[in-house]
Amino acid sequence: MSHQQQDADDSTQSALSAGDEMSPAESHRFRMLSDLASLADDFYIQNDLGKRAYKVDGKAATLRDTLLFRDMENSVRCKIRRRLARLHDDMTIEGPDGKQIAKVRKMALTALRDRFLVVIGEQPDVEVHGNVLAHEYRIGDIATVSKKWFHTRDSYGVDVAPGQDEAVVLAATVCIDQMARERS
């Protein structure tokens, strides 16, 4: 191994803290932009190798109040729809067929703190714990969100647990990000 390759490997390892290391075959880590301009903009979600993994089509949001998650073959993997209610704010995640597969709910606890719940399929409600605005939180045992994996100020990482539908979990993260930003 050359000296340059060793330096690159060392810098990659230093970006991961102990216990956060995954082999490339097991890696389910993605890079998100921390300052998503709005639901009306398109953006890409990259994997931890910097390759585009999903396109979030925000142009549909202006027409149908819907955000489309597309894979790199341009197939719709899921859709986000906004639902406003009096007591809480919901965003539903639907499959390509329009059936609800997940829901993210925001409930205001106090003037300064919100509570987020994620429901995927028939699984029980999963509570979000941590600092959502700082992008340092966990969605139960489904995913971990952190800025520490990528050393750029404008992005954060989402580490999806094995066995979870990546597109659905990433869509839930976008929902949480959008609903949290509305309060701040």
Set out the fold topology.
Elements: H1 3-15, E1 29-33, E2 43-47, E3 52-57, H2 59-64, E4 66-71, E5 76-84, E6 89-94, E7 100-108, E8 114-120, E9 126-131, E10 136-139, E11 143-146, E12 155-160, H3 166-183
Your description of this structure?
The protein has helices at about 5-15, 60-65, 165-184, and strands at about 30-35, 45, 50-55, 65-70, 75-85, 90-95, 100-110, 115-120, 125-130, 135-140, 145, 155-160. The chain has about 180 residues and is an alpha+beta fold. The protein has a single domain (about 25-184), classed as Porin, CATH 2.40.160. A 12-stranded antiparallel β-barrel has the order 1-2-3-4-5-6-7-8-9-10-11-12.
- Helices, by number, come to 3
Percent in strands: 35-45%
Spell out the CATH superfamily: LURP1-related
Task: Examine the secondary-structure arrangement and name the CATH architecture.
Answer: Beta Barrel
Structural class: alpha+beta
Domain unit count: 1
Query: Share of helix among residues?
Result: 10-25%
Unreliable segments (pLDDT under 50, ≥5 consecutive)?
1-26
Broad shape: globular
Main sheet overview: 12 strands, antiparallel, barrel
The value of Rg in angstroms is 17 Å
